[in-house]
Amino acid sequence: MAEKICVAVRVRPSISEESPSGTFWKIEDNRISLHKLHGTPISGLSYAFDHVFDESCSNSKVYELLTKDVIHAAVDGFNGTAFAYGQTSSGKTYTMNGSLNDPGIIHRAVNDVFQKIQMISDREFLIRVSYMEIYNEEINDLFAVENQKLPIHESLERGIFVAGLREEIVNNAEQVIKLLESGEVNRHFGETNMNARSSRSHTIFRMVIESKGIDTGSGDYSSSDAIRVSILNLVDLAGSERIAKTGAGGVRLKEGKYINKSLMVLGNVINKLSNGAKQRAHIPYRDSKLTRILQTALGGNAKTSIICTVAPEEVHVEETKGTLQFASRAKRITNCAQVNEILTDAALLKRQQLEIEDLRRKLQGSRSEVLEQEILKLRNDMLKYELEREKLEMELEEERRSHKEREQRIRDQQLKIENLSSLVSDGDRSSSQDSMKESPKDECNDFKTPCFKETSNNAFVAKRSNYSELPDFSPLPDSFSNVADEDTWFKMNKGYIADLDSLQTTPARKVQSFPPQDITPDCSNDNYKLELQNLKTQLELVIKEKVELQVEKT
């Protein structure tokens, strides 16, 4: 069923003590408008959304009205995504992570997921979590600092995923909160003129929720029931920046460029998606790691909610306009979310079911606490095995691809060697022919080219250049009267009398000389010999490269 993306705007409290001197933002129900100082609205700068939260709004209210339905749908098998968008220092991280007194969307979502699972008695759940950041367009694992620059892959079973990302199987909200706290330590933060603790990367906290129905009659698992697998993404985006305001330089400047670039791609994707399916052109998801990972959430099978945070100060009016325009375009996007059910062994829960049941039988007499701990340990061990197997498969595939590339390079070098060898041998033959032409032998005297002294005054005798191209036909003139008389012809041919009426033109011949472009009748063979030497040098280099490739292959 098609439904619109849910979009809300949140205005953070003002941090400036100066009163507005020209304009200010006014909130009325679910509409935000820019007004002049005396209360007159400015035409064309009024925006309506699903929700508009003012400065006094708490994270609890934002979660209840905007995100709670998405979280509950994820437990029921729908993909879900919630993310915060806005300029730097506008309150995105506070909205997603919150504080001790007012937890953010991520902490509330984690608690809500496990509370809802406890109320469902006819399904068994398996939850695994991961935490990543996109820093300078490189994906880093926040649970395992050694996992850096991770690649994005796509498969029919898993869809779009980050290869090598560490996942942890969890049983309760407390475990997840501890993992989140450990991941936050590894996240990139920095100080700018606008924010003392500015996020320098986009973060994506992901929960994979698998569930399977239980046959209440026998208390065992229903073999015919499909496994539901849903993915919940909770995203905290870094804020767009203006260098003139942040005063960024050096590393901060580089970080800001990557942040702005990825947010620009996100804006382009939102703009394309808002045009509708009929007018929609190519969607540039692959232009950024962020949009590639969120491809399903932005324009596919997912329930999505976006919270756009803005700053109320007059100095940030232009940035606020840009954020509200982004939110307006996102409001027009339509997604088609559906329950994800898997009937194959691709679901981790199905692969682990037999091992878990065997362990339950072995520990039947033990306390339930010990049983649950052993089950959790077994599941995490199996998950690590799965990730290791996946990593080895990718390495094997990469090695196969490299092997194919080396084989192709060797074949190309072999072909190049053969071509150069052919050119060098042809050049040697041509060189020997030139030497013979420079010192003609007396044995070839059956037919001599006459000199002008042997001909009449009206006759001519021409000798073809050794380097000129052959014509398509014999250069015989229309009339033979000005070539040579019969007596001269008789002398030239040692008594042979030719029947002129039986003479025919010579058929065309295509002859390729070596090299045709560099040697001319007016120059020596030095250039030709130099080129021949260059070809031999190239041949030696290619043979050497081929040997190196073969050594590398072995």
UniProtKB/TrEMBL annotation:
Residue ranges occupied by any Kinesin motor domain in the UniProt entry: 4-333
Binding site for ATP: 86-93
Name the record gives this protein: Kinesin-like protein KIN-7N isoform X3
Annotated PANTHER family: CENTROMERE PROTEIN E, KINESIN HEAVY CHAIN ISOFORM X1
PROSITE patterns: KINESIN_MOTOR_2 (PS50067)
Coiled-coil region(s): 349-416, 525-552
Gene Ontology MF terms in the entry: ATP binding; kinetochore binding; microtubule binding; microtubule motor activity
Gene Ontology terms: biological process: attachment of spindle microtubules to kinetochore; membraneless organelle assembly; microtubule cytoskeleton organization; microtubule-based movement; mitotic cell cycle; positive regulation of phosphorylation; regulation of cell cycle phase transition; regulation of chromosome organization
InterPro entries for this protein: Kinesin-like_fam, Kinesin_motor_dom, Kinesin_motor_dom_sf, P-loop_NTPase
Ranges annotated as biased composition (Basic and acidic residues): 426-444
Span list, region Disordered: 421-444
Keywords: ATP-binding, Coiled coil, Microtubule, Motor protein, Nucleotide-binding
GO cellular component, one term: condensed chromosome, centromeric region
